[in-house]
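note to self — DONT lose this again. spent like an hour looking for the file last time. sequence + predicted structure for the chain T wanted, 694 res
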Amino acid sequence: MMKYWEMFKEENEAVKERHELALERIGQFKTEETVAEPYRSYFRKAAEFIMLAEKVYGMQERGELEALSLDEAKKLNIKLYEDVLPGNYEESFCNPAFAVAALGRDFGQYLAFLLTEIRGMIVYAYESRLTDMTILEEVLIEVYNLFESEEPELKEVKEVLYYFVSDYCDVMLTYRVRETLDPSLDFAKSIIMDSDLTDLRYLYRFGEYISDSELKIAAFLNSLPEETVRKMADTYTEGIRKGFVASGRSYKSKKTVQIRYHIGFERMIRMAVENFRKLGLEPVISRAAVGTVNRAAARTNGYHGTPANRQYDYDHRYDNAIYMDKAFKERKLSVLKVAYEECRTLAKAYAGPAVLETFGEEGFTPENKKEAFALSEKQEKLLLSYSNESMQIADAYVPGMETSFTIIAFPLPEIGDNFEKIFEETIRINTLDYELYRDIQQCIIDALDQADHVMVYGMGENRTKLKVALRRLKNPAKETNFENCVADVNIPVGEVFTSPVLSGTEGTLFVGSVYIGDFQFKDLYMEFKDGRVADYGCANFEDEKEGRALVKQIIMKNHDSLPMGEFAIGTNTTAYEVAQRYQILDKFPILIAEKTGPHFAVGDTCYSWMEDCPMFNPDGKEIVAKENEISVRRNEDPCAAYFSCHTDITIPYSELDRIEAVHEDGTKTAIIAGGRFVLPGTEKLNEPLDSLNN
């Protein structure tokens, strides 16, 4: 079988002369003095890193990386990432604050961006992508030339960096589209399937930063019985199949599925690959994107490890401020469309993503640095416009109505001393009896379907008081507002959810502590008026403005306002009991946390781009509440109908007083009271809660 890097042999040969010339020129930086200080130190540092990446590239080509001992592989990994590791980052030119202090306000930000892009060469070296390495080397030389003899105008540097991104967008974005759809690009898959997974040296062959967490989780999975890991993999892969079945569609015409996961779970992922192949689906396993053109704010859109430094990632979250203008937006959309057209056959065969999330990491409180790039209001609007329009392009080639997904989560060792017990409990949570929950949840749905609206009240210091308006059913015998979520795609089991009517939905949502992505929000609040966010904030910073800015970035995704796209009642009291017993509720990912109380999502509904696909509950009733007053515009103006985001916020049972279904005549049916399920037929859900008091 052809090695992954052999696939690039012809392309690498074509760029060989350019590469040799660039490398020769960069090699001269360490002795030349044509660039004055402080810039000379910066360029020599960049050149030093490039030479290290080139060394790795050569080792990969000669097959030497596989031969490294565990200690040698670990030392090389640290060497590659040491510049941005905590402790070193404070004096790294990648750090905008240090770069500005050392190189000046004018150039510091831009040169920090350039070095951050150059660090992408780690990935390109491991994957033998010489074209990408050469492009970065050439742009460094171009900027270096500007600084020779005299200090350039800032606009000259900005222009070089702008056109570096714009000119090579067709290379970077086109490859990104392909690598998320093409199973023949099997760099990671070959490591997973062909390595001796008991020899942890394999972890270092991915080229990602490998922390103690990846080493520990891989060793732990190796210690588990075969049947345990098989159970994990089976639950994970069955989600895709069940998703198609639940929506009444067949996956038989599909040929690929994308696996996204955290490095260290390879033993389980290998079994998942085998399972998917039995279903006729060949896995695509692509890396989480690197490079500013493709990189997402949360770098989890592929396989990934523990971030080398979350502050480093945070500092560069808005590097696209350098080039985001209308011309670039239009160019990127044009390239995206061409890229999908070139991959049309692959796109048609795509069944959807299978995602493995992790949890347990320490909370991250970012430092907002004035030296880091920030988007202007105009750029924010351009970015949101791009997001919506790019979704339309993607949906044209990979229609949401023709795909499914699955998502599951497991803990990492950082969760604490009880890691192994928590891992065992998580397996139990992920495999709960879905039939039991299906029947209990149907009782809740039957009560909610008779309501005009729902009232949700917080307990104690939680000041939540929310009215959620519901759609009036035309034919209650055949229709329902709520989906009965029984762990087909969204694992574990345990929620009923709907798309609220925006008009009449109003009040305050408050949560004392909640994790959203990498961020732990404290005293998070949102005010709703006619179903739209009218105000928001959190207590993460002394400065209220910083708290608002964090909420806007992470939850609002830089929108000024968002609608309530989902209202749900979580029923997984087993997960809640485990969380309370081990004091890890604030560590649960939203995937599990949303099942441990009522939750609300801001942004699109759960059915965005799939509103016209018939969906039915296990009882045969059709789910009709799939759109709201905004998404109903989708056929006229998709850009006005969608926001390209959906962020869940959960109120835990411990902060919840009651949930009431309120009928048109004002009478009420209690679903939860005093933090306990009181609706007839739901009593069994209280058993895990009762065990907390025993």
